[in-house]
Structure to design on (386 residues):
């Protein structure tokens, strides 16, 4: 049985599932607004959900909060203020807590940025995806280039300089020049952080049923090569497969995921990972996905969509799936601290991965080589239970 002897950091994820329109590439748990958002009912449900989960985290401090969706910035500042007040009354929060809210570049939401800052939100993640009007149209986005630029400018004006821009590449019919223009525009807006990732066609999306024409592999590789160089020249260091940040501006919340920390999830479809020091058991649990079902059951055991203990044989790949996304990797000792297993549990996967040139040979650190980052799925296969 795993033995957990070091306290595991804890984060809180809150899911607000509504959006104006479902994008054709999106496989997240998001639901188009039909009439209006039941703000008060949902805030009440979130706090009831949290209270039900409190016994799982007694005595533990929350190091970061991430409010995702959907489009959380559709909620009023008043409703979010009530939610955050409820969190502060029920949880021990880190004094310099990172509080992130996902936002889209709609004009109504931009006007709320100063209000969001006033209630304690100190980081935004803005879903731009592209600065090309034709690409935005093909992605089904409801904003245009000017709205995306205005959103970043509004964040600065509101004093929310610690913001992320979500940007995708490999978009339908995208050229290398178009991708580089997107990067140049993003850099000019001076975000603290950039999430830059390739469009992938996921099951259960409209793009899966009617795939758009995507760039070929050579174009994708050239986009990545030029983008990495352009970002590095302007002080954005790649610290995770798809994440780039200025100095000391890495996303704490996501670092906690990648370092196999714990997180509590509240809201429709929210997932959590919690470690029990007494038993050494790590559980993954999640809430019912549909907002209607969640609202009807929040705060009761019926709202739990599932609660699955991780098996000891699963822990090596579960840990590596996260840690190896970090460009600098993690100390080998972190594996034992976060899983309760001895380092030997990673053998013989370590040996095979190093022989294939996918993992650095440093015996004190778990770090993918450049080749390993490029072929991360192949690297992770070495740690799958057999």
């Amino acid at each position: 049985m795993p033995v957990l002897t070091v306290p595991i950091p804890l984060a809180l994820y809150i899911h607000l599932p509504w959006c104006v329109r479902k994008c054709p590439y999106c496989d997240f748990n998001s639901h188009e607004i039909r009439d209006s958002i039941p703000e008060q009912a949902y805030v009440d449900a979130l706090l009831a959900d949290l209270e039900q989960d409190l016994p799982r985290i007694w005595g533990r401090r929350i190091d970061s909060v991430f409010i995702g969706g959907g489009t959380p910035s559709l909620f009023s500042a008043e409703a979010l203020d009530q939610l955050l007040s409820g969190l502060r009354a029920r949880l021990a929060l880190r004094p310099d807590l990172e509080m992130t809210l996902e936002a889209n570049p709609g004009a109504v939401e931009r006007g709320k940025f100063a209000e969001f800052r006033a209630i304690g939100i100190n980081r935004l993640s803005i879903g731009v995806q592209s600065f090309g009007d034709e690409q935005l149209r093909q992605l089904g986005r409801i904003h245009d280039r000017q709205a995306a630029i205005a959103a970043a400018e509004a964040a600065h004006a509101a004093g929310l300089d610690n913001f992320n821009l979500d940007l995708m590449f490999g978009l339908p019919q995208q050229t290398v020049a178009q991708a580089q223009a997107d990067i140049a525009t993003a850099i000019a807006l001076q975000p603290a952080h950039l999430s830059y990732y390739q469009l992938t066609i996921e099951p259960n999306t409209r793009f899966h049923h009617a795939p758009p024409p995507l760039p070929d592999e050579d174009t994708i590789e050239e986009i990545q090569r030029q983008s990495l160089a352009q970002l590095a020249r302007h002080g954005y260091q790649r610290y995770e497969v798809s994440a780039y940040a200025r100095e000391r501006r890495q996303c704490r919340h996501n670092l906690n995921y990648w370092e196999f920390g714990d997180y509590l999830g509240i809201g429709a479809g929210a997932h959590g990972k919690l470690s029990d020091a007494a038993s050494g058991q790590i559980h993954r649990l999640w809430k019912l996905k549909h907002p209607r079902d969640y609202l009807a059951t929040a705060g009761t055991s019926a709202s739990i969509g599932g609660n699955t203990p991780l098996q000891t044989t699963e822990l090596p790949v579960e840990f590596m799936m996260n840690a190896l996304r970090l460009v600098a990797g993690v100390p080998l000792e972190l594996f034992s601290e976060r899983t309760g297993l001895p380092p030997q549990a990673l053998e013989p996967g370590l040996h095979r991965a190093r022989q294939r040139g996918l993992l650095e040979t440093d015996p004190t650190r778990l770090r993918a080589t450049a080749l390993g980052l490029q072929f991360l799925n192949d690297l992770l296969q070495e740690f799958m239970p057999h």
